[in-house]
Amino acid sequence: MVFMEMFIFLSFVYVQGSAAQEPILQSARSMLDSSTHLLKTARSLVINPKDPPTWSVLAGHSRTVSDSIKGLITAIRDKAPGQRECDCSIDNINRCIRNIEQASLAAVSQNLASRDDISLEVMIANETLNALLTHRQPPPTLSFSLYPSFSPFIH
User: Which of the four CATH numbers 1.10.300.10, 3.20.20.70, 3.40.50.960, 1.20.1420.10 does domain 2-81 have?
Assistant: First the structure.
């Protein structure tokens, strides 16, 4: 039963992967085909370099090769498997960096707004640090058995 489920899953992954690769493979085939035609035409020009229609055909194949390369680059850039996920992750990282920079600037200018979504653990850690720095009793919600390094500071 497990083997059959694994087979079905792998088949699905194979089909999805093949579909994602198709635009890239199609563009690569087009580039290779047009390059082959370009080389065959160039070989004909080596034999008869003064044939104007062959030069025209060569120019056409050259344009096709150029367009095929552009199509391949576009397919790789836009349709490569995982590209959207990478772009999304990069956007998320950039957004986090901007948030950190804004918070840093606000903290430096003493304009850091208080947030209601700060966890209880952070608030307890802040209170404990303040208590340790001012030699007061730490808040009762913190168990110092979890933090033996604080024991020298406890009165």
Answer: 1.20.1420.10
